């Protein structure tokens, strides 16, 4: 059975983290291991950030891909993800798919779902930053390249907009 408010895409269900807070620790763990552990950030700091997505206002928010209690991946929609572009908001960030679920459409389903929710909540443009070698993934999902070579990591900034 698909939980209320969730959708089934790819080979999994995509739910709002608010509806599955039992995944908070798992989401925090994946994000911490992928981007923050090597920088010396404590895991509990990342779990605190993830829990900020549990709010009645609906922003920021996170979505998770899962099959029952089996976690597949996640993405967050947050106010800011790139210090060099503080005026851009909101951002899809921390897109993660567990390795055994990659190549099955899960990442695209998570990103599309997060963008649809953000657009439905009244945002006209959604931003995302990616390493140059990852940008084709988002371009193939229909995102548009806004900028290249941004910041120390030479990131690409991509956008998707509401269609009239």
UniProtKB/TrEMBL annotation:
Gene Ontology molecular function, alphabetical: acetyl-CoA binding; N-acetyltransferase activity
Coiled coil: none
SUPFAM superfamilies: Acyl-CoA N-acyltransferases (Nat)
Record InterPro entries: Acyl_CoA_acyltransferase, GNAT_dom, NAA80
Keyword Transport: no
Pfam families linked: Acetyltransf_1
Keywords attached to this entry: Transferase
Domain N-acetyltransferase: 12-163
This protein's record includes keyword Chloroplast: no
An annotated GO cellular component: cytoplasm
Protein name: Acetyltransferase
Lineage, top ranks: Bacteria, Pseudomonadati, Pseudomonadota, Alphaproteobacteria, Hyphomicrobiales
